[in-house]
Amino acid sequence: MKRDQDGNLIKLRHDKDGNPVIQRYTANERSNHWLTAICFIVLALTGLAMFHPAMSWLALLFGGGQWTRILHPFFGVVMFVSFMLLALRMRAHNKFEDGDKQWLKQIGDVLANREDKLPRIGKYNAGQKMLFFTLVVCMIVLLLSGIVIWREWFSHFFPIGLIRFSSLMHAFFAFVIITAIIVHIYAGLWIKGSIGAMTRGFVSYGWARKHHPKWFEEVMKKGDSGH
């Protein structure tokens, strides 16, 4: 056992090689994340299949055009609910702080991996926080516009002008969210260890200290590396 600066015992966890690790995501958070991710993939493929004739062949992955049109809105509702549950779990760590503005100003250091020159980062950096709020806005707009254009259930309640506008908004914000998720995936691959954090739930002390030093110290101060 180890003690923190206040003399409290710190409960240590170790990986298969005996190295101490910190829990970054709980099992519930990880399952919530991957459910959202699976729904996103289905929605992106079905949405693209309906968006342009050149991509209509994607409908074959779901049993044809009719099934594609049926599945898309239902998966959309599931993704919205799943993501919002995840957002509620993570909202406390996505509040903008004083150092975030400076982090954005030093984006050149970020891209050059000069992390020693950056402000001390909490659980999420400013880029991750911007992605978080971008996804929240996109999810809300996609849900509302999707309801308006959901012909089977709701579109007959709305005037044609609103349906056309909602179709444009749905397509635009779908493009934004697909782009945002591509950036999210690239960042996860770029920062070695990020994917493992969302699959296994734990990161090494070195990873936490290097990429999120402020969060690392907060966790250690609490005296439990499992939270």
Concise structural overview:
This protein is mostly helical. It is built from nine helices and five strands, in the order ββββαααααααβαα. It is elongated and about 55 Å long.
Q: Strands, helices and their partners?
A:
Layout: E1 2-3, E2 9-10, E3 13-14, E4 20-23, H1 27-51, H2 65-90, H3 98-105, H4 107-111, H5 126-148, H6 160-190, H7 194-199, E5 202-204, H8 205-211, H9 213-222
Antiparallel strand pairs: 1-2, 3-4, 4-5
Helix pairs in contact: 1-2, 2-5, 5-6, 8-9
Q: Into which percent range does the helicity of residues fall?
A: 55-70%
**Could you tell me how far the N terminus lies from the C terminus, measured between alpha carbons in angstroms?**
16 Å
Major β-sheet annotation: 3 strands, antiparallel
Beta-strand percent range = 5-15%
Overall description:
This protein is mainly α. It is built from nine helices and five strands. Strands 3-4-5 form a three-stranded antiparallel beta sheet. Strands 1-2 form a two-stranded antiparallel sheet. The longest helix has 31 residues, at 160-190. The two termini are 16 Å apart.
Features:
single chain, 227 residues, mainly alpha, three-stranded antiparallel beta sheet, two-stranded antiparallel sheet, 9 helices, disordered N terminus
